[in-house]
Specification:
Layout (H helix, E strand, L loop, with lengths): L4 H12 L10 H18 L1 H5 L5 H8 L13 H12 L3 H8 L10 H16 L4 H4 L1
Helix pairs in contact: 6-7
Length: about 130
């Protein structure tokens, strides 16, 4: 069975957890947390990673997406915000909420704020916008 991208997503979610806490971790415990998390993840997925059906290049590419030359779409963050606002039909207050990711990075990245806006839209309208994100 090929190595699934969701396994890497699990690792990234675990590594993101200390950064989105209300109280940030100190540098030394943060380093230890990251080291232990990666070590445990590698131990858990050792058999899958070593399996002959696993595409080694694909796994390495998952770990280093910045190395993919075809992943640069030339979209800066402001353009992405405008596109998302247009696609979701966001109001001015929702666009302001979306742009808070710049001033409040401890509360998550652009994706986290898109999720918050979509969930708040769902509460107001009853329409599930979250399915558009996932």
């Amino acid at each position: 069975m090929p190595f699934q991208f969701v396994y890497l997503c699990d690792l990234l979610c675990d590594l993101e957890a200390p950064y989105i806490r209300d109280v940030p971790m100190l540098p030394k415990p943060l380093r230890e947390y990251k080291s232990n998390t990666v070590r445990l993840w590698l131990q858990k997925h050792r058999d899958r990673l070593n399996d002959l059906s696993t595409n080694d290049l694909a796994v390495i590419s998952m770990f280093q997406p910045e190395k993919w030359v075809d992943r640069d779409f030339g979209i800066d963050i402001e353009s992405m915000e405008r596109m998302l606002a247009r696609v979701f039909g966001l109001s001015r207050s929702q666009v302001i909420e979306l742009r808070r990711h710049k001033t409040e990075p401890h509360n998550g990245d652009l994706g986290a704020f898109v999720e918050r806006v979509a969930v708040s839209m769902e509460r107001v309208s009853g329409i599930s916008y979250f399915s558009l994100i996932v």
